[in-house]
Amino acid sequence: MSSTHSFNIKHWKLVAILMMFYDAITIAVSYFLALFIRFDFHFNEIRLSYLSIYKETILLYVLFCLIVYWIMKMYRSIWRFASYTELIRVLIAVSFCIAVHFVYLRLFIFRMPNSYTAIGYLFQMIFAVAIRFSYRFILLLKNRKTSDYKKVMLIGAGDAGLQLLREINKSDKTNSKVVCIIDDNTNKHGRYIEGIPVVGGRDDILFNVSKYKVDQIYYAIPSSSNSQKRDILNICRETDCEIKVLPGLYQIANGDVSVNLMKKVAIEDLLGRDTIKVNNDEIFKYLNDKVVLVTGGGGSIGSELCRQIASHRPKQLIIFDIYENNAYDIQQELKRRRPELNLTVLIGSVRDSKRIDQVFREYRPEIVFHAAAHKHVPLMEESPCEAIKNNTIGTFKTAYAAVKYGTKRFVLISTDKAVNPTNIMGASKRMCEMVIQTFDKLSRNHSTDKLSVVEDCFSEVSAKDLKNETEFVAVRFGNVLGSNGSVIPLFKKQIEAGGPVTVTHPDIIRYFMTIPEAVSLVLQAGVYAKGGEIFVLDMGEPVKIDTLARNLIRLSGFKPDEDIKIEYTGLRPGEKLYEEKLMDAEGNKKTDNDLIYVGMPLDIDEDVFLQQLKELYIRSMENDENIGEMVEKIVVTYRKSEV
What we know:
By secondary structure, the chain is an alpha/beta fold. It folds into three domains: about 5-145, no CATH class; about 145-265, Rossmann fold (3-Layer(aba) Sandwich); about 280-480 and about 510-540 and about 580-635, Rossmann fold (3-Layer(aba) Sandwich), CATH 3.40.50. Helix content is about 50%, strand content about 15%. It contains 22 helices and 22 strands. The strands form five sheets. It has a nine-stranded mixed β-sheet with strand order 10-9-8-11-12-13-18-22-21, with helices on both faces. It has a seven-stranded mixed β-sheet with strand order 3-4-2-1-5-6-7, with helices on both faces. Helix 12 links the parallel strand 9 (about 315-320) and strand 10. It is elongated.
């Protein structure tokens, strides 16, 4: 090692050494000033005996103080972040030193005046505090003099708001300053928190944004309901301010509230529907100590399924996905967050019957969540045979393996696009539902031998050897916010690029839900399953995509049609203006969860359907360009869009 490195001293240690010199000098000066003031600022009037005692004791006292300061960690604090904790530490250290000094003088010296220790204590305290808080004070003055900082309105005068306010005040990197606080508690109106006025409730937001020339609004009420948040944020988005929110309650529990954790308002914050409540005890009993397989486990829905399943302590969780990057990401996340989890990650395609058979034969999953699917509507319109191969035939092969190896429950992830489909993706998912309803009926009637009609195409075992133990259900829901292929990520990228934001039609509407909600529904449906049902979530009122786009633009701090243009591009092939949740023939029956409904199984002629499925498989493998005609025969509600 070079000599240069040998004498390299860390910056904080150098500061500590300089601070010790400062303390030594100021402590000595403090008690000299005490004598000087005691004798009315006349040095010649100070008794020589007092000066002699001062000279004899001050060095020992200075060394004692430095030792106490070191023990109290007064040389290891980061003083730019000095707060009440550091102030109390200084107070205790100086008070202890002067107390010992006073006792020493009384017991062994006798002759020093009382004012000597009192005045000396005062100066010692002033000097100790001044140097340690001067850096923060200078930063505060600097921030107040800065004219280009962003003015922040803080919504919420509770614990989260207070923590956030303090974090902003002590940081010199946020380039922000809270200028006013909003809270609906009228008892706080007209009062101050850390010198910042609480100016009113939600009805006063617009007025005070204008009065204080607010640039940003921070929403810091993580305990509020979704409907309360929606109402307040809908007022905020009428301004031109950038809006940010705290993600959730756990920040308060962990004492982890900071500007860095603030996230831009997501569109789900404006939906206003409270999160679905599921019975976690039932789900735990259902999943605990079971071998669970998730196909498509690396996707947006599949990965969230894996996260929530992992929290219910399964015997083993098997993630199966064709895309290794996604599979790797969720694997590493679960290893980090749940090191105790018995996790297996496998790469493969549901289109590969031999690979599927191998997985089921080796791991014998008791519960299967089938999330693997192609779901991009326009892309599937261009490649219809791929939608059939991956979605419909892939579901058949996975269900076949489930029956063969005695899986107890098979849950299909479906979509509202399967209802009266106008595109090949929706029709392929409708056929997936027909597949699992057919399998459930055959399994229930112990007649899986009928599957021999199609076994020549892709089965690895005679249908006569299949078991009849599996319950099959489907879970159908609408668009999932933030999922791969959803409009939200697309809109955000377009906004970041400066626009335009493209909407297919000004009147197009969709039902929306969050990924955790969708997965909670899937897990709860698995508990309710009796076999053959299609579970549906009551997703509330549909949302106009045009409104959603405009809200996102406002939430990003821009004005629609001024800063960011909106362009209407026309409906894409296979796209319709609205989505439906249930077919009329399926009925609408409630479950124990008020937000979950069930459509009863439709009457399907399984013999005809299996024969059609065989032909569909053959034509898809031949990449028949007219495969849509065959789909129309199988899915009688399929009406290809003319767009």
